[in-house]
Design brief:
The structure holds 2 protein chains of 2 kinds. Chain A is α+β, with helices and mostly antiparallel strands. Chain A contains 10 helices and 11 strands. The C terminus of chain A is likely disordered. Classes of the chains: A alpha+beta, B mainly alpha.
Chain lengths: 335, 184
Amino acid sequence: MNNNEIFNEAFGNVDLKYIENTARAPKRKSAILMRVMPIAAAVAILATCVIATFSMANRNKPEVPGADDPAVVPPVVDTEPERTNTIVEGAFKLVPDTTRSGHILQPWQCCAYAEAYSYYLKNEKIYIKINFGFADNDYAKKFASGEMGYPDWGDPSYALVNANPTIRCYATLINYYDIKDAYENVLINGSSKYFHMFDEENLDFGYITEIYERYDPELDKTKIYVTPIFNCSEMIELDFSNVPVGTSGKIIVDFGWCEPDLNEFDGRGPGQWLYFYVGENGIGFSFKRPSKERSYAKENVEIIENANSSITESEMVNGWKERFGMPSNDTNNEE
Amino acid sequence: MDDKRIIELLFERSEEGIDELREKYGRAMYGVSYNILGSREDAEECVNDAYLSLWNLIPPERPSPLYAYACRIVRNISLTRLKHKTQAKRDGDDISLNEIAELIPSDASVSEEFERAEITKCLNEWLETLPRDNLYIFMRKYWYMDKAERIAKELRISESAVYLRLDRMKKSLRKYLFERGIIV
């Protein structure tokens, strides 16, 4: 009897409870119920914050919003909250984060994409799902070129997994500010400060091929297009019930990561801003980053068409005010 | 019918016990066997052989849980049949067995000092350390011999994620076995 047969015989006789307990798939945990970590040290490390700038302005009764306002992709405000709607669809593309160059993250390059759904009426809680991906283009390219010395398994992800197997992502959503106390009114998952660490088991693994193809068709598809990506996802609940009408600002959601072997956290992962405006009739939300979109638009006609790239932040916020019935003569947010 | 009643029927030497067993767990047993053998006819024969084994084993055994016990028996019978088939074909290269072989590094060997029971005990201890999802993935892949695609579908994760976790678990298990001297 050879080694494998001995081992297989032993494995075949493992305790019956493991066989019984795996007869059916376990129920999946909700993202919200995932492990929530204390904020203490990590908050200090992270350079991430919510810097919310207020526009507590004039409270005159608004005019009826312009339904056909061409300047914005306004957040939809329905009489019934619809949690399956995607907001600002098309405004987000996977973005290679070139700002990371020179940082200790090299050769890793972080990519971020985000999608969101749901929000709306003033008194409704707002649920936003945010997905992030961590990818490594350099690695994929080296692998494809044979530089890494791995045999061709026909699946680049396999090489990535074996060469540098674990990335730990930290999702942070921090609502802290030292500007004005009023922002304590915005609660994120019931807290004014929120920090969430994903463990390895909460990470998914996939590819960013299709997303890349959408925004840069000129790339050499044979080398870069099949890029492994580690995904993490967070569902957050925002509570604006105590926030005064007329308030606008932004919340930053950041994902950091570290290699477990080093056990060294780096918060400079991909992040996403959520602009918001609290109107009298409802709350507007957008993930738009006008300057970024404009730069993409120069390179890709499709994005011009899909993303309303000509919008400025000012126009966006003013559009909300019209949409949500607030005057628009106050200054708007700035990054 | 609950498991206790089925076992009682078998103790009474009533063939109804086998009928109830077939009704309740026959499909799952067939699934285990089919995953290993990949042949409907062979799987059906192994399941029938397993019923005969259960008939002979109960009494005196009173297995609990019955489902897992029945699956283990049909798995062992199926693996034995697979071994004979591959030997007959002289290729010795069956995918199911190769997947199990992945668990032991090619340059390592199982220490002769250990009895099978000790290895099993060590495996039980390692399985106990796994989170629920990982336990499901590992057992479904290597014990039930399910395809990764199916496991991914059941857990609503990508197939790549299944392979990623399996890879990590294999490394973890190897380390565990090395540390305890099971494999050298």
